[in-house]
Specification:
The protein is α/β, with parallel strands linked by helices. It has 2 domains: about 5-250, Type I PLP-dependent aspartate aminotransferase-like (Major domain) (Aspartate Aminotransferase, domain 2, 3-Layer(aba) Sandwich); about 250-385, Aspartate Aminotransferase, domain 1 (Alpha-Beta Complex). It has helices at about 5-10, 55-65, 80-90, 105-120, 130-135, 160-170, 180-185, 220-230, 240-250, 250-270, 290-295, 310-320, 350-355, 370-385, and strands spanning about 70-75, 95-100, 120-125, 140-145, 175, 195-200, 210-215, 275-280, 300-305, 325, 335-340, 360-365. The longest helix has 20 residues, at about 250-270. The N and C termini lie far apart (about 50 Å). The structure holds pyridoxal-5'-phosphate.
């Protein structure tokens, strides 16, 4: 089925048998446990809600369908999803190669939990050049971890080429697909092995649920991660599962509007005298515009840019906006704006942050689905204050 059809129907085919009521929307199954008629016969396979819940299973089928994969798993946050992948694939003294431009919380998890507690080594490389990934692979490297586009610099890496390199070395590739959403990019079709999401962002899309997902097609890897999802326990609640599934139904429509607005804003900012540099893969001036056209079907709604000046100018600009909420997170219907150096990426030491390019003058925008002219008018008046 096409994306928009799966987004609405996958996992929610009405059931007419066995006293079922033919719901067109799977109900929120709040029951924490499930009664059975005999000790070894769980009803419908359900035992206890951490191990399996009908509302979460519906969402997990939908997540798999929209990424073009066989299996989906829903977690209580994007970081819970990432942690469970790490618990499933890493042992003490293993090694990981990761893109050097990553969500700050991912880097914090890698450095302070997997590295400091378990001795896992991380090589952060500029994956815009696949050769950097290749030369960082060691004998004990267990996987390659990528984001594309990245948070916050909106850089890309060639998922197909890096998947080829890593498969030659016999290791899987994991792609955090949060910024693109499965509507604009399907890493598994490009050769990646595992996709992770913060469903908190575009997938839920309404800034009212924190959640995460792991999506994959390999049966063995799925069984391993599913085992640890239950063993470690960071599952998505039935109510949040319902919200995320509801959000997915409009993902195609929302992403088209996010992109249309983001392109208008990126073009406006690129022509503004107080703006130094705009990063949006839909602009022909983005150094990886051609790669974006090749591996994405659209450019999503995230834009970052550098203001002329430094932190003081960035602060004044952000303080004077009225429509854009000054807030962390992204991917909701409402436009959000933030200062990565003091907000989402504050957990990365300043020297590491600046080495990658996250400067004090950098601003990140999650462009919502409001009217583009209203958004541009708000940017215009705030830029006029600096
Ligand atoms: C790209 C990316 N991955 C993962 C996460 C973590 O997700 P969560 O906040 O749902 O734990 C975030 C959060 O901002 C993110 O931006």
């Amino acid at each position: 089925m096409a994306f928009a059809t799966d987004a609405v129907h996958a996992g929610e085919e009405p059931v007419f048998t066995g006293g079922a009521s033919g719901d067109v929307v799977v109900p929120i199954h709040l029951s924490s446990t499930f009664a059975r008629k005999d000790v070894d016969a769980p009803t419908g396979g359900y035992e206890y809600s951490r191990s399996g819940n009908p509302t979460r299973f519906m969402l997990e089928k939908k997540l798999a369908a929209i990424e073009g994969a066989a299996y989906g798993l829903a977690f209580s946050s994007g970081l819970a999803a990432e942690t469970t992948v790490g618990l499933s694939l890493l042992k003490k003294d293993d090694h990981v190669v990761a893109f050097d431009d990553l969500y700050g919380g991912t880097r914090r998890l890698f450095n302070t939990v997997f590295h400091d507690n378990y001795g896992v080594g991380f090589s952060y490389v500029d994956a815009r050049n696949p050769e950097n990934v290749k030369s960082a692979i060691k004998r004990n490297t267990r996987f390659i971890w990528l984001e594309s586009p990245t948070n916050p610099l909106i850089r890309l890496c060639d998922i197909r080429e890096i998947s080829g390199i890593s498969h030659d070395a016999g290791i899987p590739v994991i792609v955090d697909n949060t910024f693109a959403s499965p509507y604009f990019q399907q890493p598994i079709a490009l050769g990646a092995d595992i996709v992770v999401h913060s469903t908190t962002k575009y997938i839920n899309g309404h800034s009212d649920s924190v959640g995460g997902a792991v999506i994959l097609s390999d049966e063995d890897l799925y069984q391993k991660i599913r085992f640890n999802q239950n063993a470690a326990g960071a599952i998505l609640s039935p109510f949040d599962s319902f919200l995320v599934a509801r959000g997915i139904k409009t993902l195609a429509l929302r992403m088209e509007r996010h992109m249309k607005n983001a392109l208008a804003i990126a073009e406006y900012l690129a022509g503004h005298e107080k703006v130094r540099e705009v990063s949006y893969p839909g602009l022909p001036s983005h150094p990886q515009h051609a790669l974006a056209q090749k591996q994405m079907s659209g450019f999503s709604g995230m834009v970052s840019f550098e203001l002329k000046g430094g932190k003081a100018e960035a602060r004044r600009f952000l303080k004077n906006l009225n429509l854009f909420a000054l807030a962390e997170s992204l991917g909701g219907v409402e436009s959000l704006i933030e200062h990565p150096a003091t907000m989402t990426h504050a957990s990365i030491p300043k020297n590491e942050r600046e080495k990658v390019g996250v400067k004090d003058s950098l601003v990140r925008v999650s462009v919502g689905i409001e009217n583009a002219e209203d958004l541009i008018a708000d940017l215009e008046q705030a830029l006029a204050t600096i």
